[in-house]
Design a protein that fits this description.
Number of helices: 12
Distance between the termini: 76 Å
Structural class: alpha/beta
CATH class of the domain at 6-67 and 96-176: Alpha Beta
Largest sheet: 5 strands, parallel
């Protein structure tokens, strides 16, 4: 295969992607365009521009883009309408960011006339699949370069040697083995590897990035009210806020109370199991509140159907199929279910827990006069239940009769 002429690289400005940048230049002699996404990872991103300039990238080929609002509005919120949890626990913080990054890589490739995009995901993980499936769905002609599957820099020593040979600055804390690997965005922080590789050993407290240990959480609870419109959070304590601002504020509240820490051994799409520590404080509160408003606004048929497809929906996101027709079909069903999911939920935050304590809505299906233990003033005739039960018991009676007949 011929060498690419111009490559758009997903670039963090860190050591690994800086090495990839230089490797693309030396291996292919190609022009490189960098894309750095501000996903709310909490790091200063301007140093990425300086590093790219230092490595010979033209100013007009360096793109640092604030995508926080797009991330929450177009990716996180649609996913939360589904209450998506991978393997019943994981809020998919890393998974949901990858299609957004891929979208921008492909758009920049079109704008710059590039014939390839590149990422820094390894050959052992899920991210390579997510980046490349997304790119294929958005532009089937685009070439994807995955250096970790191609080069011979297979050890930390060789990476550092390459950096030194090519005058790539190496921070002091990068010269030794990092204690664990971190990926962060506005939805979560993910920590994996090194000290976390043995699932039989409790993770050390210093792993936590944005959530205080529950033992250090305040002894006084906070109460927060979250207002929803058609399944999306639109206000906190009556104040209308943008999607990214809502998640940021919930992260602060949840982190303060030790909410949203998950120690998970998951099944990667590529086949192996891995252990990760995830911190999703705002997302955990948001999930609880969304469930709370659905309790009074979704009918049983809609809610139970939605719950039944959730594992499939979550698996599609985890495996990198955000842009697949089946995910879009499920999204249409989920979004239809949210037409009346509007109202306010009051959540109590205390010592690692987020608990719904009240919910109300103009769209509520809850009828106090039907469920009251007091006089229901004719709203419900309890005698109707007898026929309902007899009809539902009919097939069970017929089965029982057949069993008795066979025994006889």
């Amino acid at each position: 295969m011929s060498a690419p002429k111009k490559v758009v690289l997903a670039y963090s400005g860190g050591l690994d992607t800086s090495i990839i940048l230089k490797w693309l230049q030396t291996e292919y002699g190609c022009e490189v365009v960098t894309f750095t996404a501000d996903l709310g990872q909490g790091e200063e991103l301007e140093p990425a521009r300086k590093k790219a300039l230092l490595l010979g990238i033209k100013q007009e080929n360096i793109h640092i883009v604030d995508v926080r609002e797009e991330f929450v509005r177009d990716f996180v919120f649609p996913m939360f309408r589904a209450n998506a949890l991978y393997e019943g626990l994981y809020l998919l913080g890393t998974s949901i960011a990858r299609p957004l990054i891929s979208k921008h890589l492909v758009e920049l490739a079109h704008r710059h006339g590039a014939d390839a995009v590149a990422h820094g995901a390894t050959g052992k993980g899920n991210d390579q699949v997510r980046f490349e499936l997304s790119a294929a769905a958005l532009d089937p002609s685009i070439r994807v370069i995955a250096p970790w599957r191609l080069w011979d820099l297979t050890s930390r020593t060789r990476l550092l040697e390459f950096a030194k040979q090519n005058q790539i600055p190496i921070a002091k804390d990068k010269r030794g083995e990092a204690p664990f690997s971190v990926d962060a965005n506005l939805l979560h922080t993910s920590s994996e590897g090194r000290v976390l590789e043995d699932p039989a050993v409790e993770f050390p407290e210093y792993v936590l990035q944005r959530v205080v240990p529950v033992e250090q959480a305040p002894d006084t609870a906070d109460i927060v009210e979250i207002t929803f419109d058609r399944g999306d959070a639109v206000a906190i304590d009556g104040e209308k806020l943008s999607p990214a601002t809502i998640l940021t504020r919930l992260n602060e509240l949840g982190g303060k109370h030790g909410i949203g820490v998950l120690d998970l051994v998951e099944n990667r799409f590529v086949g192996m199991k891995s252990r990760g520590v995830y911190e999703t404080p705002g997302g955990t509160i948001l999930l609880e509140a969304h469930r709370g408003i659905e309790q009074i606004t979704l009918d049983a048929g809609s809610g139970h159907l939605k719950d039944s497809i959730m594992p499939r929906y979550a698996e599609l996101i985890y495996n990198g199929f955000w842009f697949s027709p089946e995910r879009e079909m499920l999204q249409a069903l989920i979004d239809k279910s949210q037409e009346h999911v509007s109202g306010t939920v009051r959540v109590k935050l205390f010592k690692g827990t987020a608990r719904t304590i009240a919910r109300w809505s103009d769209e509520s299906l809850y009828s106090e006069k039907h469920v009251t233990f007091e006089d229901d003033a004719g709203a419900y005739d309890q005698k109707d239940a007898e026929g309902f039960i007899r009809l539902n018991a009919l097939r069970l009676r017929l089965i029982a009769t057949r069993k008795a007949r066979r025994k006889g």
